[in-house]
Amino acid sequence: MFSVNAQSGMPIYRQILEQLRRLVASGQLQPGDELPSVRELALLHAVNPMTISKAYSLAEAEGLLSRQRGRPMTIAAQDVPKENKAERMKRLQPAIQQLVTAARQLNLNDNDVLNAVRQGLEQNHE
């Protein structure tokens, strides 16, 4: 469900929070869907449980998640507006710009970058 990259420069709790926002905005996570426990997610990604707890707490404060004692965290039952494709593409723009900047700095040609992106997309489908 989530992936973390310790080398990205973005704090891991923010990576998880951003992924949560995107998964809800795209409708891949629906109200009532249960999330993995803090402990499960921390073990899976070999991070401190407080990191996951911080991401979940911030998402709860935003109204994205709901917590019930003794139960897993769930996507809040409120009306979470599902974003259309244009809005979701807009969320992707900073990552695209970062990729383009890195590719230019590494003096990679467009075809190599496009092939690498295509390969990454294909690997993520498996």
Automatic annotation (TrEMBL):
<feature type="domain" description="HTH gntR-type">
    <location>
        <begin position="10"/>
        <end position="78"/>
    </location>
</feature>
<dbReference type="Pfam" id="PF00392">
    <property type="entry name" value="GntR"/>
</dbReference>
<dbReference type="InterPro" id="IPR036388">
    <property type="entry name" value="WH-like_DNA-bd_sf"/>
</dbReference>
<dbReference type="InterPro" id="IPR036390">
    <property type="entry name" value="WH_DNA-bd_sf"/>
</dbReference>
<keyword id="KW-0805">Transcription regulation</keyword>
<protein>
    <submittedName>
        <fullName>GntR family transcriptional regulator</fullName>
    </submittedName>
</protein>
<dbReference type="GO" id="GO:0003677">
    <property type="term" value="F:DNA binding"/>
</dbReference>
<dbReference type="InterPro" id="IPR000524">
    <property type="entry name" value="Tscrpt_reg_HTH_GntR"/>
</dbReference>
<dbReference type="GO" id="GO:0003700">
    <property type="term" value="F:DNA-binding transcription factor activity"/>
</dbReference>
<keyword id="KW-0238">DNA-binding</keyword>
<keyword id="KW-0804">Transcription</keyword>
